[in-house]
Protein backbone atom coordinates (compact mmCIF):
# COMPACT_ATOMS: atom_id res chain seq x y z
CA UNK A 1 0.00 0.00 0.00
CA UNK A 2 1.28 3.42 -0.82
CA UNK A 3 2.04 5.86 1.98
CA UNK A 4 -1.30 7.69 2.21
CA UNK A 5 -1.85 7.41 5.96
CA UNK A 6 -0.27 10.71 6.96
CA UNK A 7 -2.07 12.52 9.77
CA UNK A 8 -1.65 16.00 8.34
CA UNK A 9 -3.57 15.89 5.08
CA UNK A 10 -4.20 19.11 3.21
CA UNK A 11 -7.77 20.14 2.46
CA UNK A 12 -7.62 19.06 -1.18
CA UNK A 13 -6.54 15.52 -0.31
CA UNK A 14 -9.16 15.30 2.44
CA UNK A 15 -11.88 16.29 -0.03
CA UNK A 16 -10.59 13.73 -2.52
CA UNK A 17 -10.83 10.97 0.09
CA UNK A 18 -14.31 12.06 1.15
CA UNK A 19 -15.52 12.03 -2.45
CA UNK A 20 -14.02 8.59 -3.02
CA UNK A 21 -15.54 7.25 0.20
CA UNK A 22 -19.03 8.46 -0.71
CA UNK A 23 -18.79 7.11 -4.25
CA UNK A 24 -17.34 3.78 -3.13
CA UNK A 25 -20.00 3.28 -0.45
CA UNK A 26 -22.69 3.90 -3.06
CA UNK A 27 -21.15 1.45 -5.53
CA UNK A 28 -20.51 -1.19 -2.87
CA UNK A 29 -24.16 -1.12 -1.84
CA UNK A 30 -25.08 -2.21 -5.38
CA UNK A 31 -22.37 -4.65 -6.51
CA UNK A 32 -19.48 -6.86 -5.49
CA UNK A 33 -16.07 -5.36 -4.95
CA UNK A 34 -14.65 -7.36 -7.86
CA UNK A 35 -17.24 -5.81 -10.19
CA UNK A 36 -16.36 -2.22 -9.29
CA UNK A 37 -13.86 -0.57 -11.61
CA UNK A 38 -11.52 2.29 -10.87
CA UNK A 39 -13.00 4.11 -13.86
CA UNK A 40 -16.55 4.13 -12.51
CA UNK A 41 -15.34 4.96 -9.00
CA UNK A 42 -13.42 7.98 -10.29
CA UNK A 43 -16.30 9.04 -12.51
CA UNK A 44 -18.80 8.93 -9.64
CA UNK A 45 -16.37 10.68 -7.28
CA UNK A 46 -15.59 13.23 -10.01
CA UNK A 47 -11.82 12.84 -9.76
CA UNK A 48 -9.22 11.92 -12.35
CA UNK A 49 -7.74 8.43 -12.59
CA UNK A 50 -4.29 9.97 -12.22
CA UNK A 51 -5.38 11.43 -8.88
CA UNK A 52 -6.64 8.06 -7.69
CA UNK A 53 -3.40 6.31 -8.62
CA UNK A 54 -1.38 9.03 -6.96
CA UNK A 55 -2.73 7.78 -3.63
CA UNK A 56 -3.67 4.12 -4.19
CA UNK A 57 -2.14 1.19 -6.07
CA UNK A 58 -5.49 -0.32 -7.09
CA UNK A 59 -9.08 -0.74 -5.87
CA UNK A 60 -8.05 -3.36 -3.29
CA UNK A 61 -5.50 -0.96 -1.83
CA UNK A 62 -8.25 1.66 -1.65
CA UNK A 63 -10.72 -0.81 -0.11
CA UNK A 64 -8.21 -1.63 2.64
CA UNK A 65 -7.80 2.07 3.35
CA UNK A 66 -11.58 2.58 3.21
CA UNK A 67 -12.33 -0.10 5.84
CA UNK A 68 -9.43 0.87 8.08
CA UNK A 69 -10.61 4.48 8.12
CA UNK A 70 -14.14 3.36 9.01
CA UNK A 71 -12.81 1.18 11.78
CA UNK A 72 -10.53 3.92 13.06
CA UNK A 73 -13.49 6.29 13.33
CA UNK A 74 -15.44 3.64 15.20
CA UNK A 75 -12.57 3.00 17.62
CA UNK A 76 -12.06 6.70 18.24
CA UNK A 77 -15.70 7.09 19.22
CA UNK A 78 -15.55 4.09 21.52
CA UNK A 79 -12.24 5.12 23.13
CA UNK A 80 -13.81 8.38 24.28
CA UNK A 81 -15.92 6.38 26.74
CA UNK A 82 -12.88 4.78 28.42
CA UNK A 83 -12.20 5.85 32.01
CA UNK A 84 -8.48 6.65 32.45
CA UNK A 85 -8.79 5.59 36.10
CA UNK A 86 -10.23 2.19 35.18
CA UNK A 87 -7.98 0.18 32.80
CA UNK A 88 -10.76 -2.33 32.13
CA UNK A 89 -12.81 0.26 30.27
CA UNK A 90 -10.08 0.50 27.62
CA UNK A 91 -10.56 -3.16 26.72
CA UNK A 92 -14.33 -2.95 26.95
CA UNK A 93 -14.22 0.05 24.59
CA UNK A 94 -12.13 -2.00 22.16
CA UNK A 95 -14.72 -4.79 22.32
CA UNK A 96 -17.62 -2.44 21.61
CA UNK A 97 -15.66 -0.77 18.83
CA UNK A 98 -15.12 -4.09 17.02
CA UNK A 99 -18.79 -5.04 17.21
CA UNK A 100 -20.09 -1.57 16.35
CA UNK A 101 -17.79 -1.48 13.34
CA UNK A 102 -19.11 -4.77 12.01
CA UNK A 103 -22.73 -3.80 12.64
CA UNK A 104 -22.45 -0.33 11.13
CA UNK A 105 -20.67 -1.63 8.04
CA UNK A 106 -22.54 -4.92 7.57
CA UNK A 107 -23.36 -4.07 3.95
CA UNK A 108 -19.73 -3.34 3.04
CA UNK A 109 -18.49 -6.47 4.80
CA UNK A 110 -21.15 -8.60 3.11
CA UNK A 111 -19.92 -7.38 -0.29
CA UNK A 112 -16.37 -8.20 0.75
CA UNK A 113 -17.41 -11.72 1.74
CA UNK A 114 -18.83 -12.20 -1.74
CA UNK A 115 -15.40 -11.34 -3.11
CA UNK A 116 -13.67 -14.35 -1.56
CA UNK A 117 -10.83 -14.19 0.92
CA UNK A 118 -10.22 -10.44 1.01
CA UNK A 119 -12.26 -10.01 4.20
CA UNK A 120 -9.99 -12.38 6.12
CA UNK A 121 -6.94 -10.50 4.85
CA UNK A 122 -8.37 -7.17 5.94
CA UNK A 123 -9.34 -8.52 9.33
CA UNK A 124 -5.77 -9.72 9.88
CA UNK A 125 -4.46 -6.28 8.98
CA UNK A 126 -6.89 -4.60 11.35
CA UNK A 127 -6.14 -7.16 14.06
CA UNK A 128 -2.46 -6.28 13.79
CA UNK A 129 -3.33 -2.63 14.30
CA UNK A 130 -5.44 -3.42 17.37
CA UNK A 131 -2.74 -5.73 18.73
CA UNK A 132 -0.15 -2.96 18.47
CA UNK A 133 -2.43 -0.53 20.30
CA UNK A 134 -3.15 -3.04 23.06
CA UNK A 135 0.52 -3.93 23.45
CA UNK A 136 1.38 -0.25 23.88
CA UNK A 137 -1.37 0.20 26.47
CA UNK A 138 -0.27 -2.91 28.41
CA UNK A 139 3.38 -1.87 28.29
CA UNK A 140 2.45 1.50 29.80
CA UNK A 141 0.50 -0.28 32.55
CA UNK A 142 3.52 -2.46 33.31
CA UNK A 143 5.82 0.56 33.47
CA UNK A 144 3.38 2.16 35.91
CA UNK A 145 3.79 -0.83 38.22
CA UNK A 146 0.46 -2.50 37.53
CA UNK A 147 0.60 -6.33 37.64
CA UNK A 148 0.26 -8.40 34.49
CA UNK A 149 -0.05 -12.22 34.42
CA UNK A 150 2.02 -12.42 31.20
CA UNK A 151 4.09 -10.19 28.92
CA UNK A 152 2.35 -7.32 27.10
CA UNK A 153 3.13 -9.01 23.78
CA UNK A 154 1.42 -12.29 24.73
CA UNK A 155 -1.58 -10.59 26.34
CA UNK A 156 -2.10 -8.31 23.33
CA UNK A 157 -2.03 -11.27 20.94
CA UNK A 158 -4.41 -13.25 23.16
CA UNK A 159 -6.92 -10.44 23.58
CA UNK A 160 -6.98 -9.24 19.98
CA UNK A 161 -7.09 -12.77 18.59
CA UNK A 162 -10.00 -13.75 20.83
CA UNK A 163 -11.85 -10.51 20.14
CA UNK A 164 -11.65 -10.83 16.36
CA UNK A 165 -12.56 -14.50 16.42
CA UNK A 166 -15.66 -13.84 18.53
CA UNK A 167 -16.63 -10.78 16.50
CA UNK A 168 -16.34 -12.72 13.25
CA UNK A 169 -18.44 -15.53 14.78
CA UNK A 170 -21.07 -13.00 15.88
CA UNK A 171 -21.14 -11.41 12.41
CA UNK A 172 -22.07 -14.71 10.77
CA UNK A 173 -24.73 -15.37 13.44
CA UNK A 174 -25.96 -11.81 14.00
CA UNK A 175 -29.51 -12.65 12.96
CA UNK A 176 -29.90 -14.97 15.95
CA UNK A 177 -27.29 -13.73 18.46
CA UNK A 178 -27.84 -10.39 20.20
CA UNK A 179 -24.85 -8.06 19.96
CA UNK A 180 -25.36 -6.50 23.37
CA UNK A 181 -25.49 -9.89 25.07
CA UNK A 182 -22.17 -10.90 23.51
CA UNK A 183 -20.58 -7.58 24.50
CA UNK A 184 -21.90 -7.99 28.06
CA UNK A 185 -20.41 -11.47 28.35
CA UNK A 186 -17.05 -10.39 26.98
CA UNK A 187 -17.04 -7.34 29.26
CA UNK A 188 -17.72 -9.60 32.23
CA UNK A 189 -14.75 -11.77 31.26
CA UNK A 190 -12.56 -8.68 31.02
CA UNK A 191 -13.69 -7.52 34.44
CA UNK A 192 -12.88 -10.94 35.90
CA UNK A 193 -9.44 -10.86 34.26
CA UNK A 194 -8.71 -7.37 35.61
CA UNK A 195 -9.84 -8.47 39.07
CA UNK A 196 -7.50 -11.47 38.91
CA UNK A 197 -4.58 -9.24 38.00
CA UNK A 198 -5.42 -6.92 40.89
CA UNK A 199 -5.53 -9.81 43.38
CA UNK A 200 -2.16 -11.09 42.15
CA UNK A 201 -0.60 -7.83 43.26
Automatic annotation (TrEMBL):
Keyword DNA-binding found: yes
Keyword DNA-binding: yes
PANTHER family xrefs: ACREF/ENVCD OPERON REPRESSOR-RELATED (PTHR43479), HTH TETR-TYPE DOMAIN-CONTAINING PROTEIN (PTHR43479:SF16)
Alphabetically ordered keywords of this record: DNA-binding
InterPro entries named in the record: Homeodomain-like_sf (IPR009057), HTH-type_Tx_Regulator (IPR050624), HTH_TetR (IPR001647)
DNA bind region: 37-56
Matching Gene3D superfamilies: Tetracycline Repressor, domain 2 (1.10.357.10)
Species in which this protein is naturally found: Sellimonas caecigallum
Positions of the HTH tetR-type domain: 14-74
Domain of life: Bacteria
Name this protein carries in UniProt: TetR/AcrR family transcriptional regulator
Amino acid sequence: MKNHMEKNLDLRVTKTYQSLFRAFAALLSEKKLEDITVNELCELAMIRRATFYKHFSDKFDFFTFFLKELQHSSMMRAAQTADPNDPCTFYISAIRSAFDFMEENACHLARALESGGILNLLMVLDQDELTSSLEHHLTERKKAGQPLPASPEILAQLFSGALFQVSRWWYTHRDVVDKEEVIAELSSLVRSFCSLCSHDS
